[in-house]
Design brief:
Helices cover about 30% and strands about 25% of the residues. The protein is α/β, with parallel strands linked by helices. It is globular, with a radius of gyration of 13 Å.
């Protein structure tokens, strides 16, 4: 998976090989996304020193609204722009293409080891990240 960052430039998931990665699909228009944003932001800060990487995928949104959302919720990790749902469709075998928010936990070898459909709590995220950290 490769995409354009909200801030410009490109990002490829393969560049995260060797790191546990949390991939969160969100939209500024999504009420549940707004509810889970503080937990995602805090969990990213907590696990950052351990090398866990977080990537957002902003779906069905515009750049101005997405940037405001990231600022409001102090999201410090990068987010890809997916206004046409192309990235979301690449993951349609593991998450429904209309289930936002959705969060995938990806092992160091880039295997999906956990998923959360709907609101991701800090506790659920932490448990799934810790399990993924034990994977090769």
């Amino acid at each position: 998976m490769t995409g354009r960052l909200l801030t410009g430039g490109k990002l490829s998931l393969t560049s995260y090989r060797g790191h546990v990665t949390v991939l969160n699909f969100w939209g500024s228009w999504c009420t549940v996304c707004r509810e889970e944003a503080p937990a995602l932001s805090a969990t990213a800060r907590h696990f950052g020193p351990a090398g866990v990487q977080f990537i957002g995928v902003d779906v069905q949104d515009n750049t101005a609204s997405a940037e405001a959302y990231m600022k409001d919720f102090k999201i410090g990790y990068p987010s890809l722009s997916d206004s046409s749902d192309q990235i979301a469709l690449e993951f349609s075998q593991v998450i429904p293409d209309t289930a936002f928010p959705s969060t995938l936990i990806i092992s160091r070898s880039q295997r999906v080891t956990g998923r959360i459909i709907g609101n991701a709590s800090a506790s659920n995220l932490s448990n799934l990240i810790q399990k993924a950290q034990k994977q090769p």
